[in-house]
Amino acid sequence: MTGYPAERGAADEFVRAARSSYRLSGKDAVAWLRARGGDLGDLPGAGSFHMVVEELCGGSFLGRRIWHTAGRLRYLGGGDRSEHRLLLQVDGAIELTSRGQRTTVTANDVALLRSTAAVDITSDAPSARFEVTTSIPPNRRAGPVLLLPASAPTPAATALASLVNAVMNAEPAPDHPVLSALIRAIEAAVDALVVERSPRSTASRSAHRAYEEALLFIRTWGHSPTLTVPVVVEAMHVSRQYLTKVFTDRGTTIGGEIRRHRVRLARRLLAHGLVSVSEAAEASGFSSILGMRRAIRRVHEEDRAAGRTEDATDQASTRFHAPS
Fold first, then answer.
1. Terminus of the chain with fewer CB atoms < 10 Å: N or C?
2. Measuring CA to CA, which residue among 173, 172, 166, 185 is closest to residue 61?
3. Strand-pair partners of 91
4. What are phi and psi of 75, to 5 degrees?
């Protein structure tokens, strides 16, 4: 699955991103698509095809906000087997065709396109969508196109759309740590969206699955001060007693994981020195600087007692920001 800062090495924490914007039509649109492993189909009126693209590349992340007129776009496949292109349809409808399979995608639907498969995207009217290249775990991969429909906007889809918009509209420079943190949040939102939309039976969900999904929810929403233990329990559709036992059986607690995630976010922001202490506290979900300092000290002590080793970034921020 797409990585998250807490599981990546210190050298991967800081992403330098490159952002580009394009307004293309006709031959220019064809050239842009071909440079990215695609092409423009031969529908009538293709010569008057227009598209507007905002593109952000950083590390292994690739995200695009795309609007285009009626036409047929082709992705020629040949990408990494573990990668998928996630489409979150924002407006209008498109039809995806791959290996004889036709799938209609409407607003708020999500489609996963396997990077190795050739896919045609056809629209009869202007449409808009987000595209994010991501890795999908083997147990969630299917055919060349997997549709995850939605009858209405859902929390993960809303979060993903908001985050992509925030990144595309962001004022910080491409190498600013805040932008890096937003990219990591997008990756977590993609994971959450796949979990949210994937068919599953709650009754037959294993304790391990419940634990992983709860952690994923915490990683997606942990930056928000409104995230509490009851919110996590409600989102998992299980009893508080059951989810508490799932976590205690693994030597942790729901509240402890929320705190640990917020501390990780704060440490990453503080280590780069480009945000103030108060800004880091607010961006990490803490209600105050004092609360952040206490949480950092508590997690530091818990790690030391458990024999867990902090990476160099965490050690530096702990030394600097632990309360006296």
1. C
2. 185
3. 128
4. -100, 125
Q: CA-based Rg of the chain, rounded to a whole angstrom?
A: 21
Q: Can you name the residues that pair with 54 across neighbouring β-strands?
A: 21, 65
Q: What is the pTM of this model?
A: 0.54
Domains and CATH numbers, the chain: 5-180 (2.60.120.10), 229-321 (1.10.10)
